[in-house]
Structure formats: C-alpha cells, structure tokens
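Hey,

The postdoc asked me to send both predictions to you directly instead of through the lab channel. I've kept everything plain text so nothing gets mangled by the mail client. Protein one:
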Amino acid sequence: MNSLFIAINMLRRTLFQKKGFLMYLVIPAAVVSLIIGVIGQQSDHGVDIAYINLDQGAMGSHLLQELSMLPDYRLKEEASDTALKEVITKQKVSSAFVIPEGFSETLMKGASAQIDMYQLNMNEASITLKINLDSILSRYQGAIELHSQQGLQGAALREAVEKTMSQMEKHQVKAKVTDFNLYVNPNMNTVIGFMLMFMMGLINNTVSVIMDDRRQRTMARTYSAPIHSYEIVLGNFIGSFLVGTLQVLVILLFTRYVTNYDYGLPFVPQFVILEFFLLASMGIASTVASMVKNASNMSVINSLVVTPTCMLGGCFWPISLMPDWMQKIANFVPQKWVIEAILRMASGQTLSQMWMHMGVLTLFGLILLGVGSVILRPGDAEVS
C-alpha cells in the first residue's frame, strides 16, 4: 500500500501538472505523429512519365493506349523536346520517351522501329518502362509479320493490323493481381525507432525526479518514515513504470486511431513488447543516473547513451546495412530486440513466438535495475 502511495505521488509530480502533461504525453504523441506523416506512410507506387508522339499513324496511339492501361504509369504529354528535357532535368518525371515520326510506316514495312528514351539516371522505373516498350513493340511486330505471311499488303495489311491492335487493347484475357498488403511497411522501422528514442528520453526525465529527491534530501526523509526500504524502492520504480506506460498508451492510441497509421499488427502484442522495452529503458536510465553525482550532467550523459544505442539498435537505419561487427554489438542494446520483434509480428508471427525477445528485454531490465538501484541510496547526495 505504501508503495502505491509513492507511485501515485510520482504521477502527481510528473503527469498531473501542466508542464509534465505536455512534456510527457502531448509532445511525444504529436512528434511521433509528425514523423509518421513525413516518412511513415506507404509510398506511392505510381510513376510519372512524359512523352511526345510525333507519329501520324495509328501505331503510336495504340502504344500510348497500352501504356496508359498499366496501373503504375501516369502519362503526361509534352509539347516539345525542350519541355521534355526540362521536366527530366528538374526530376518532375521519372523518365520520358519520344515516338518518332514515321513510326507506324516503319513497323508496317517490317523494319525495326526505335523509341528514344530520356532519363536522368537509371532506376527501377526507367528499366521497367524499357521492358514494357520492348514487349509492346515485339507484339506489334509479331502481328504485322503474321499478316504479312498471309499475303496481305498495302491497305489490306493496314486494316487487318488495325483490327488486331483493337482486339489486343481489350485484354479480354488477363491476370488479376490482388494485393493483400501482407508485406511490412518499409518505413515502419524508422517510425518504431523514433518512438523508442522518445520513450528512452522521457524515462530518463522520470528518473531525474528520483535524482532531485536525492539531491534535496527528500529521499533521506522518506527513508526515516516507519516503512520498509523495499516499499520505497518498489514505489519509485512502479511510479516510473506507470508514467512510461501512460506514454506508450497515448502514443499508440493517437497514432493508431487519430493519425490512422497501420502498424500491421494488433494493438495488444505491440503494447506488450513496448512494455518490456520500457522495463529495459528504466534499467538503462537508472544505471546512468547511479553513475552521475550532479543532476545537471544527466542530460549530457543521456545523450551519450541514448543516441549511440539507438544507432546500434537500428532506430535510424536497418541493422542489415551495418558491418558484421556492429551487427554483433547490436545484440547488446534493447532497441534491436524490440524492433525485430515488432517487425516479425507485423509479418505474421504471434506474440507467443517472441518469447526470446521478451526474455532478453526482461534480463536487460532486471540486471540494469539492480545496478541502478544505487540512485535510491539516500546517503549518496549530489556533489557540485
């Protein structure tokens, strides 16, 4: 019971004040939502392509019709070569092409027609556009060759090819692709990483409250009260854990149901994993605080701990991009385990399969909390 009173008192001193409410709940939820709005949403797969059609025949129009039916292409006609090159150099479009004059006549003669492509650099969009153009041209040449072998020439050949092109554009038999969104959002790694970084920073601020009690001798007076020492220790840790839990709840509820960000996994498993990370973060913060004798140095030392561990843990970039020796070191920071657990659950695994990740995070928390319990010694006063 005494531990609960101490925990509630910590809540009153942190969250139940205007400054604490803004700093611990409102600002973190707003910042994480802003990050989601900037980099977290699924990227648009549409590709902008500019073109110029100099062909006076029907083949150029048929080719444009074929490309426009592809779901990922947005075609934009330009008036001149100058305008075409300008949109390319300013990167307003991914790539561009020009259908040359006499394109239809060249194909009707059975010759190989050439389409000029423009691109600032080689990328996925330009390569797939090249493949699609070659595929369409191959079909056109095959149809013309087939009718030519039947003895058709001149206007008869042109009419037969035109009918064939019209039937081909109907795509009466085609594959239907259904996207069930079973893949993990590639931007979620960064979203979760920034969320963890804010959680660690806020837990450090909560531990600073305990340091203030030690500096002002409030903790010494608490230990003089007729209660057990373990109740004081438990009350401080429960209070810090409750503050962190409310932070996690507010951030998840706001990003899920206000920002409408799709994490790709249910609410409860994600909340449980973040609670285990919260325990590990409390251990890191208390361990750092136990080595600091002056509270004014706490923010500097936290920066030297939070930022490097977040970098090693994959909060800013995937761990797979780091050298092998850094990937091995990443196993010794909790961020790596919680990000990996969330990404695995987003790809279809269940919370029960994350027993190793939860176990490692628990060990982080228990061991570091044991080391960091030094901050609750009332005799270790702050030095100037």
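Protein two:
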Amino acid sequence: MFLPMVVGVDGSESSLRAVDWAADEAALHGVPLRIVHAYRWDRYEGASLARELGKPSGHVTSDDILVVATRRARRHHPDLAVTTAAEAEEPEYVLLREARNASAVIVGTRGRGELADLLLGSVSLAVATTADCPVIVIRGNHDNRAAGRRGRIVVGVADAPTAAVRFAYEEARRLGAALDAVRAWRCPTHDTVDHPLLAGTPERVHEERAAKELEAALADAPADVRLRRHTAEGPARRVLLTASHEADLLVLGRRRPGQFGHRLGRVAHTLLHHCACPVAVVPDTA
C-alpha cells in the first residue's frame, strides 16, 4: 500500500506553493496526493485565489480552494492521483490525524489573517513538532521543484544513524542530487589553554571527534548516493542556515517524545523560522 503525500491548504499563496511542491514530491515517489483544507473561519481573506476564481474573496468557499489546489497540483503532473477533503475543524488537529496514514505532510510557512505576520504559522509549527511522519515546511522561493533545482540536499547529522539520515538518502537518490551531510562542532571556551606548546590542540581534538562521529552516523550510506561529508565549527543552527542557501531541501531529525512530550530543539526551531529552503523534520523511529 502506497501512503499518500498530504498537503494542507488554506488558499493562501504560501499554501498553494506547498501544493506545487507536494505534487512534485508525490510524482517523484509514485504515490497519490491528498489535499486537505481545514477551516475555522467564516470567510476567506486572501486576494490572489479570489482573483484566479474571478469572484470576491468573501464568496470563496472551501470547495473553491480545493478546486484551485487540485488545478495547481495537476499543472505539471496531469496524471497524478489526487483526492481532497474539507474539514470544519482546527487545521492542526486535521493534519495530525492525516499524518497517521501519510508518507509525509507538506505545509506552507504562513497562515492567514492574524497569523500572516508571523515567521512561521502556528499550524505548521504544531504539525512539524508532533506529526507521526516526516513534515516538510516549504520555505524560500522554491515554487516548483522541477524549475531550477540546485541538485543539493543538506542533512544535519546527529551522533548515530537516524531516520532523518535515511530519509535524506532516499530523497537524494530519487532526485539524483548530491547529499551534503553536515555535523557542526564547537570548542568550549574552558578547553582553551594558554601554554604555547598546547595552543590549538583542543580545537583539533573537537574537530577530529566530530569527523569520527560523522563517519559513524553515515556507516550505512548507500553506495549509489553522492555523499559529501562536512564538519564545520560553530553553532549548528548557524552552520545549517548557511548551508540552506545553496540547497533544495534541508533535512533535520526530531527525537522521540520524552517525559515532557513532543519538543523541537532550538536548532530545528530556528531553522523552521529562518531557513532559506524547504525543511523536512523527520521523527526518529528508534
């Protein structure tokens, strides 16, 4: 059974860009696309979709939003299997429920109305934090993957092989893209020494340790993936933000829930708000 790609749409331009990207992803994986619109508003407030339909924004219905989204999905993939659903419920609840039977959930960055001024809409953040499957948040100007790909995926690497790394392998293989596996390292200030014969030693030790940890985490790398290993000194969020400017996709892991429930680390939280490309948040399955 092929689980569908699920994309959340509210009619905003951000969500329609997510539909474009989700259609590419579904076609790439050979799975159906499911377009979901969940609403708790009496009327639609966006102008671009209303113009496309040729009617006042106050007259745009849920069915209209799904019609336009389906049209967008089939623009580049006319044979793509598409299903739709409209639910009168809080969007995050609907998308989290859909995530239980999805290969991935794709969402845009911004909401509508009062949420439009936020760096990342609360729905997208909630889904990325708690979904049972990978969540891809469409950031940057990547309107359609088929147009102008950079041919590069970046994955932030932790201490051991993870679901995020395996997800990145598969995306790189399907896209024919190079995969840059990045591990950041720091030299704590308390390791600095004043003796001239020991100067620089702590820094080298931390860099070598990071390189060994990176190799261990990539121990099961497939031979057919063009894998490039990188270690970089600095905070992980800064290193990965820099790498995102030349990437089609940035892949991050999300640890399993602990005693405080689902949580995103500071690195993932920062990247979801500021990354220059789409971000995939992949829950660890171990």
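Summary for protein two, as requested: The beta strands are 5-8, 33-38, 82-87, 104-107, 135-137, 152-156, 178-185, 227-233, 249-254, 279-283.

Thanks,
C.
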